[in-house]
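Anyone have tokens for Gfo/Idh/MocA family oxidoreductase? Sequence:
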Amino acid sequence: MTSTTLRCAIVGTGDAARLHAEAILAHPAAELSAVTSLNLDVARAFAKTWGEPAVYDSLESLLAEAAPDVVLLCTPPATHADAALAAFAAGAHVICEKPPATSLVDVRRMEAAARAAGREFAVVFQQRSGTATQHVQQLLRSGAVGRPLVAQCNTLWYRPDAYFDVPWRGTWASEGAGTLLQHGIHQVDLLNYLAGPWAAASGRLWRLARDTETEDTATGTIQFASGLIAQVTSTVLAPRQSSAIRIDTELATIELEHLYGHGHANWRITPAPDVPEAVAAGWQLPEAEVPSGHTPILHGVLDALATGSALPDIATGASESFGLLTAMYQSAQDDGRLVRPDELTADNAATRSLRAEVTELRPEVTELRPDASQTTEIFG
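Reply: yep, here.
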């Protein structure tokens, strides 16, 4: 570590900001020096809880007066690109909550602005973090468990109607897209991190129960360069919530099931019946455990910024991951056809917006409650 303390500023003081503040205050080379939010009362209350950083009434005043080294964006996704570009122009590094933006064009703009300014751009894909993830990625990429063949990637969450009462939720303009982008991004990104790069993807968007502009359920297929074929489901309609990945290889089944974060206990590696025990023993997770979460990924980024070293790969490659989601949304617009990465190289409609056709499958509700006379007749 250098002797310099990184001055960190948080933009947006909602739920995600708490996790960022915890990580900053626990890091030996960082301090939380400034915050801003649209609601200044919320920002002031947040500041009192997290070390009394200075509170600013706008990002512009924060950048000009606090001169932060690192800006952490915890605002709705539609605001990320402009805020990141302003931070880079002011000489700050940027750590951005997921999704990094609402279009692939904006993600690429952010990456290009970081390069031009000589600054770093990190995205919080926290599911990539943890010792189990790193171990499983090595097993897959080294060929230790044989060639990956088929996979399932499920984000089965539950969000009631009231969740979408927040004005910016469920809209193309503010969120950019629905559950595939807002929720499924974690597991899709993790699968790509473990088994990528992706080679083609298809998708379909469905609105089954929630009163939103965007999808409440999405399905799709991903082909990976390795030959792996994965089926993807993301929904906000699942009462028993689960986040799960299953990868079947020539020699093993690798499974992860959790909800919002995972440790070693959430992973299981099952060898094929003919795999020798001595071989399978070499696949065991390491004894020392670090769970996934905001702290390990943010500390990895802050370590790199403090020492001037390269960012860890768990925080990079935003356009690769976002490109995969873009392909699935583009496919939904084109009746489910496979979309390949080279189709997303230009600045076109697909890369500028994820807006796509959503199939409405909410039938009219049939009244099944009997009237009083029927009740008497049936139940006495």
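The chain has two domains: 6-124, 129-290+319-359.
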